[in-house]
Amino acid sequence: MSTQTELHIDLGNSRAKWRLMSSGETQAQGIAEPSFWEGLPNTPLIDRVVLASVAQQELVDGLVAVLESRYVVPIVQLHTPAEHLGLKNSYAQPERMGIDRWLAMLGAWYPRQAHVVVVDAGSALTLDVVAANGQHLGGVIIPGAALSEKALLSSTGKVRFDDPVAHALALGQSTAECVRFGIAHAQIGAIESIRDRHNLQQAQWVFTGGAGQWMRDQLGEFGDYEPDLVLKGMHISRA
Ligand SMILES: Nc1ncnc2c1ncn2[C@@H]1O[C@H](COP(=O)(O)OP(=O)(O)O)[C@@H](O)[C@H]1O
Ligand SMILES: CC(C)(COP(=O)(O)O)[C@@H](O)C(=O)NCCC(=O)O
Ligand SMILES: [K+]
Q1: Catalytic: 100?
Q2: Which positions does UniProt annotate for ATP binding (predicted)?
Q3: Which domains does the chain show, CATH number per domain?
Q4: What confidence tens digit (pLDDT) does each residue in 73-89 have?
């Protein structure tokens, strides 16, 4: 285990989640918003920044510039490997798999060494299946709830609303309800359909991402919710 102090950053398409790690212990953690990267820790006492990013290059460049000006330490960018610590990638081009998916799988599978299903409900909703022996069996990438709504609004003329309706598995009686309830059904229904079609009921399910808790609750509170799963996987990969 590294005895040095590392700033671990998981840069998704919506926001950056970070943890300050020293000798395997979390010293501090938080979320940094892309606008001005406010929220990053104010400490000069780190040895290295470790970055796992799936964001657009512009956003990565912006973050790296801020990191370079603030910390003056090496920045290590992680890339998805074909195999690490017994976890095996199914992609013919492993580096094309999002590093967040890989680290989330590592964070879920490595401590359990069991058949796991990883659901990351962030900007995109991803589901990945790992066999007990560490083989990635496959996954899916689905637009997340916010992205689905954006697509609907930007490609139609009359799907418009201002009322802040919560996502629910119900039938709607207004544009706002029809959209939000429809998207809720699409998100939850997709996961249920994959679970049933691929006989994944008996696997160990691990949920993460901004909507991970909501998703687990809607599915009947089965499985675990681990908000820091990607960062946990990053820590495991660095150990
Ligand atoms: N409490 C919440 N309930 C449902 N969705 C949420 C909640 N908080 C954030 N989100 C959604 O989660 C997404 C951000 O999650 P995150 O896992 O950080 O995404 P990313 O890894 O893509 O940056 C946003 O699209 C946001 O709409
Ligand atoms: C699927 C993702 C967009 C998820 O990103 P997120 O929702 O966490 O921001 C990301 O893992 C990604 O860009 N992946 C590259 C394509 C792939 O994994 O095959
Ligand atoms: K995701």
Answers
A1: yes
A2: 10-17, 123
A3: 5-77 (3.30.420.40), 83-145+158-237 (3.30.420.40)
A4: 999 999 999 999 999 99
